[in-house]
Amino acid sequence: MYRRSAAAAVLLAAALTLTACSSGGDDADADAKAKPPASSAAPDPADAPAPSAPAADAKPTGPVLPDAKLTPKTGSFTAEEKKYLSGRVPEKMDPAAVLQTGQEACQRVARTAKRDKDAATGAVITGEIAGAKDAITQLCPDQKPILAAAEKGFPEGPRQSPAAGNYRALTQATNCTWEAKGKDGAVLASGPETPPKAGDKITATIPAGTAEFNSSGCYAWIPA
Asked: Tell me, what's the pLDDT at 59?
């Protein structure tokens, strides 16, 4: 009886496995068709998986490979790639793995910018695309306009002693609000004056003498 039961269990498991493989293949095909191709201009920052190597914007605190040993297992690195890797590769890690994190940052910036430059700029400002500054500088200089725009902006949240001027929020969310306060805590300006509608551009004017500018739901800001 035990042997029959065991045999029956094996046969049932095999049948379930075959069924799962068959249905799983169909689901995988459907999922593949639903996703945009790799060359699509769909925004990427939130979708891309985190790199397996150390964060692209963080340099190791322990021993690192000397520049003379920054060589891949096959082929060679370009001068720009070596500059990017200098001081960034932990002693026992493959330099190519670290380089890949920078290349992935470049790819994410490029794919996002192709569809929406504001989204790419915001992702660099907020750090959503980690290590974008170094990656763009050394590995994908064609994206320097995005970096230049990002360096003039700042993320949502409290900001001390901001430069006076007009700014534009890099969001189309309708829950973006902002407030500028003086040194005594008095509100100097706030907005939006009327509730924004979906797709509206949200701007803020920071008065001279603002001690703190705080915003919520606005993602990031750049000069208007």
From this structure: 75
